[in-house]
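Incident log, structure service

09:12 report received: a user says their structure output differs between two submissions of the same chain.
09:20 pulled the input from the user's history:
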Amino acid sequence: MSENDIEKLKAAIIERLRTVIDPETRADVVRMRLVENLEVGEGGRVSYTFRPSSPVCPLAVMLVQQIKLAVAEVSGVESQEITVDGYVGAEELTALINEE
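09:34 re-ran on a clean worker, output below:
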């Protein structure tokens, strides 16, 4: 994968994430900065951090599932590694979302 291909894939992922809306705020997850550290590697390996808007966000599980599905739908994405940060159940949710 060339650097140009990686940048195009990263841009496509960000555009797709703009369609994931937080139902409480009605803002997309990109605008809310809920997805950080987006990296695209060789072979379509994608990694990023999901940081809910609060440590006890009642929608965190639903949002990270929607984010994962949205990223998976982008052509060229082969795998995802997601880290959940800033959430009371971060370790458990990180393990759960990465095993699905």
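09:41 both user submissions now match this output. Likely a transient worker issue. Closing.
09:42 reviewer note: The longest helix spans residues 3-17. The two ends are 26 Å apart (CA to CA).
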